[in-house]
Amino acid sequence: MPDDNLSLTAKREAAVAALADVPREPGAKKPDPILVADDVKRHFGGLLAVDVDHVEVQRGAITALIGPNGAGKTTFFNLLTGFDRANSGSWTFNGRSLHGTPPFKVARAGMVRTFQLTKALSKLTVIENMRLGATGQRGESFWRAMLPFTWRGQEDAITERAEELLARFKLDTKRDDFAGSLSGGQRKLLEMARALMVGPELVMLDEPMAGVNPALTQSLLQHVANLREQGMTVLFIEHDMDMVRDIADWVVVMGQGRILAEGPPETVMSDHKVIDAYLGAHHDQSLAELEEQLETGTLAEEVAAELGQAPAEAVPVEHTGETKDGR
Amino acid sequence: MDWGNILELSLRELIGVQAIVFALAAIGINVQFGYTGLLNFGQAAFAAVGGYGIAVIVTTYDMSFWLGLVVGIVGAIVLALLLGIPTLRLRADYLAIVTIAASEIVRLVGRSAWGRDVFGGSDGITGFSSAFYDLNPFTEPFEFGPFQFRERVLWVLVVGWVLVAVCTLVVWLLMRSPWGRVLKGIREDEDAVRSLGKNVYAYKMQSLVLGGVIGALAGMVYSLFQGAMQPDVYATNFTFFAYAILILGGAATVFGPVLGAAIVWFAFQFIDLALRGAIRQDYIPSWFMDANDTGAVRFMLTGIVLVLLLVFRPQGILGDRREIALDAR
Ligand SMILES: Nc1ncnc2c1ncn2[C@@H]1O[C@H](COP(=O)(O)OP(=O)(O)OP(=O)(O)O)[C@@H](O)[C@H]1O
Ligand SMILES: [Mg+2]
């Protein structure tokens, strides 16, 4: 166990050290990028949803992609993984251009994503969901599928790997349930575990924490941090700043389709551009300060003061309406 | 009323040629719709291509029966590719529209005046089945209890049920394999399957081709039994009838289509004979219905049964209730 912990910190330290000399500016060059994107643009009618000049993702590190709702984060994921087509731009994964590559080839190349709106395959059991994730299955070819002896052995190995992952994600008791019967948070976990079955080099998680209860958040954080220990690179979208602070080695901030800022979590979270993008009015305070205020309750007072009379006026109106309806 | 006779005649239909033909058509649809979620509304076209394959090669071009079989199957594969290549990348409804149109195109081309030299117009083609019946090993009628089958019928039944068994076995093997798992995944959410590195387009195409080829077998069995290939047999109601059978038996179950086909043809015959008997005996007054109405009434009753089934057992006879419950979540 102590050895484990040591290597844990060693990997994290290595990632942080590698990023130490990277300038804290949008589009900064990384020492060993696994993913490089240039001039990626995506229009939806008049809206320029993604307009990324240059961004690099460091290999072996955990990078967070943050930004307000509608910043274009999911759209950017969709473009990179081939689920949506860019109007222009180019990007490479491991030095290989993936522009115009269909999603399944992107996944096979080692870049696997999850979805913001979870996609559990409802009428398949949890274990079948997991098995589906494994690549290079002999039994997935039409002719060999009819000859079970050609794929039995491989299937057993896949099942074993799937069960290990399920145990890690605390889903082993759900093994034979339909995925559709899982709760929202459990589906998130299943989707993440299933993505790992592909054996990816780069894992792209779209809001892995959304809808997961706080008790599970810690263990999920551990899972994500563990991916780095196993040599994977992680790029995740998240609104939960605690998660970003706890496990991200590097943070990229998007706003209105553009990369606004980049840097280690502490630096980025005190960047005024980020705070502008997120909070608008409270731009002169750092996130940490805001949080402190939140904890001491001063922010709540402020908010209540700002909202002032409004609720007091609204309540009686609603009330009379209700009584009329009720009687 | 002679209930023994009614039951006997109905049981003949239970294992009859119609049941075989629609079991095959429904097995094909089960692969496409039940397991993959593809809406092929043109199964009649695949059956027609199978039937025309033999008929045109043997009668029109005077070539071998075996070549006809190959042409029928290759024709179904080509049709599946033609329909699938432009539509399988698009949303599910495009395939539905294109297949229903293709089904009518095949039928209308078959019965057209300008294609008469090849396809025989609306009268269709006859005289292509002798090679098939020459292979008949049965030389005497077969008797089994009250049942008697003439050797010709017996031959079709044996070949037909062997085909049904083989197709069912293939579907059973495939759907418990990783290949079948990919299909079921596509039915649930094709983007999720793409994100796991599977070539969804290729799998959909394989599913469409497999289901189409099984549909072609249905057309072959029927036209060989009839000794005639008539285009109007393969109108769109052929397809919808096969869908009804599949849903009755249970979509995405291995034996659902076979069970559904057997039950429907049994019930058809039984209702028809029972109604006729009742009318003859004046149990049903003639101002209410006469013997000519029984054909329509049995369709109405079948419709009522289907509606009741969808209300009380939406998963079909063999389906898994838990799966339907998931849709409500
Ligand atoms: N298919 C689409 N058609 C039209 N507009 C779209 C489409 N997809 C996204 N958009 C628009 O693009 C912008 C970016 O959307 P995107 O989903 O990428 O945001 P996001 O950063 O992931 O936000 P959130 O944090 O809420 O998930 C939004 O303004 C959205 O309305
Ligand atoms: Mg999003």
TrEMBL record, chain A:
Query: Which named protein is this?
Result: ABC transporter ATP-binding protein
Matches recorded under InterPro entries:
AAA+_ATPase, ABC_AA/LPS_Transport, ABC_transporter-like_ATP-bd, ABC_transporter-like_CS, BCA_ABC_TP_C, P-loop_NTPase
What lineage, starting at the top, does this entry show? Bacteria, Bacillati, Actinomycetota, Actinomycetes, Jiangellales
All residue ranges annotated as the ABC transporter domain in the record: 35-281
Task: Give positions of region: Disordered.
Answer: 308-327
Native source organism of the sequence: Jiangella aurantiaca
The record's listing under SMART domains reads: AAA
One GO molecular-function entry:
ATP hydrolysis activity
PANTHER family per the record? Answer: CONSERVED COMPONENT OF ABC TRANSPORTER FOR NATURAL AMINO ACIDS (PTHR45772:SF9), CONSERVED COMPONENT OF ABC TRANSPORTER FOR NATURAL AMINO ACIDS-RELATED (PTHR45772)
User: Which keywords accompany this UniProt record?
Assistant: ATP-binding, Nucleotide-binding, Transport
Automatic annotation (TrEMBL), chain B:
Q: Which UniProt keywords apply?
A: Cell membrane, Membrane, Transmembrane, Transmembrane helix
Q: According to its UniProt record, where is this protein located?
A: Cell membrane
* Species per Swiss-Prot/TrEMBL record: Jiangella aurantiaca
Molecular-function GO terms, alphabetical:
branched-chain amino acid transmembrane transporter activity
Q: Which InterPro entries match?
A: ABC_transp_permease (IPR001851), LivM-like (IPR043428)
Query: What is the name of the protein in this document?
Result: Branched-chain amino acid ABC transporter permease
Transmembrane parts of this sequence: 14-31, 38-59, 65-85, 153-175, 208-228, 240-268, 295-312
Q: Look up and give the membrane topology term.
A: Multi-pass membrane protein
List the record's Gene Ontology CC terms alphabetically: plasma membrane
Write down the Pfam families for this protein, in alphabetical order.
BPD_transp_2
